Amino acid sequence: MKAGIDVYCSKGTAVAAGLDGHRVIRIAEQIPFSIGTWTILPFRVEHDVEEPLGFLMVNEAGEKLLFATDTYYVRYRFNGLTHIMIECNYSEVIVERNIIAASEEVRPQLISRQRRLLRSHFSLENVKGFFQANDMSRVQEIWLLHLSDANSDEELFKREIQGLTGAIVRVANR
């Protein structure tokens, strides 16, 4: 905001993050708005914060981008997506492996973190389920976002998603 960039977010997010001023543009789920050649439809996602939103963006050229991060589940189904940017934070298998390998002193802390992961972040397994439930026929490119340092495997995630979808898969830098 100090750099002159508008911040679009829900009222709940703005209040929780202490955001205020003319650069904060409050939006609401299921109420579309436009920025340039893009029409954006915010939709509710599941996360342990106030009023989290994902975004379905459609441009005048007919491209459809889905953006969903900081969520563990997306309840909606989408047709005709061409690009997807989605959180793929951890693998349930890697989390379990890390818990088993941890010392007795550290294990309770990891178990506590695991409980939060389950209700705040998208696992590889749930992302795959999301892709299987949606129309992936036009998807050209998928970006995996927000990978955990300790509970993910970039190459495994990329390989699994590419094998499932046939799309080009890229992983955002951490």
Automatic annotation (TrEMBL):
Coiled-coil annotated residue ranges, if any: none
Protein name (Swiss-Prot/TrEMBL): Beta-lactamase family protein
